[in-house]
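Reopening this one. Same input as before:
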Amino acid sequence: MRWLKLIGIGLVALLVALVTAGGALFFFTSPERPVEGSASRAWLDNREYAVGRADVVFVDASRPTSENRGVPGKPERTFPLSVWYPRDVDGRLPLIIHSHGILSSRTELEYAAAHLAGLGYIVAATDYPLTSGNTEGGANALDVVNQPADISFLIDSLLAWPEDERPFAAAPDPNRIGLSGYSLGGLTSYLATYHPRWRDPRIRATAAIAGPSTGFTAQFFANSDARLLSIAATADALIDFSSNGATMTERAPDSSLLVIEGGSHLGFVGLADPAFRFMSNPDGIACNAVLGVLDDQNSVDYNIFGDMSDGVDISLASPDICADMPPPEAIHPGRQLMINQIAMTSFFESVFAPEPERREQAWEQLSVHLPADFAEASVATNR
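Same output, byte for byte:
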């Protein structure tokens, strides 16, 4: 039995060594943070409030969910919702609705949602009925045309949420409503903000992250005076930078463009660090997954959004998704997550903070300090 005991001791020692080595590897490959005392470090770390999260289900009985690849449709649209909020705060607070990407979920940008909540925001995100990763029959990108109305329904539901049913005292401010969206959710956010027939005029600010936009013209973006921040990455294999984000400030009034040099598409998702820390560019994973549910349609079909009278130019269609493979090497995903979090926070604060001094400070953070503290970031604006 002595030899069994020795083997056990050896296995324990090996396990301890592996855990120690893994911890050291994790530590020594962590992303470089902005220097202590810098403006960006403060925006990255500081929160005013403890954060809570509530999960609720809202049902829109007035609109159906379509049949999807043999899965029967439903007479209603159901929205499992997560809401992040500051604890022990009352009054009226800005409301942000986040829209997830294809095959993703409502928690994809929880790091940013929780940080905004810590600064006094109510942030809500749902799993859409037919585009999330748990969609029966597989995610269906064509249902994006229904998601602007989903956003309006969620805004209505959150504004009408009875105080005695809410798990927090604060209420959403109907005059301070914003959107964030990633990938297909970025496209959803553009539609909900600017589409001449689908837009919700209550939306005052939108942050679209890696969202397709090629077919949307200056006429399309003239339909709203909402403030816009587009966030784009140059090593994004799914949403071509040159035909989407690069021209945004030429098309959209009162807009800003944050470019992350070497950023990847998956680098915006919270699990990117540490999950993809040791990959040259994780977008190959995303390409395989997304192309598998697009039903041989590997580019955005702008026909479904309208025509020239709607400000939609189908002749400006995007290049095929994942047409240029393998993608270029990406930056550390942890750096990309930090840039995105600071950008989203400072952008919404530059619009919704109640004090003029705070709004100006936030705009300076976005336009000046963020690019100064991160070599990978640059900001262009036509504000």
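So the earlier flakiness isn't reproducible anymore. For the record, The CA atoms of residues 176 and 285 lie 37 Å apart.
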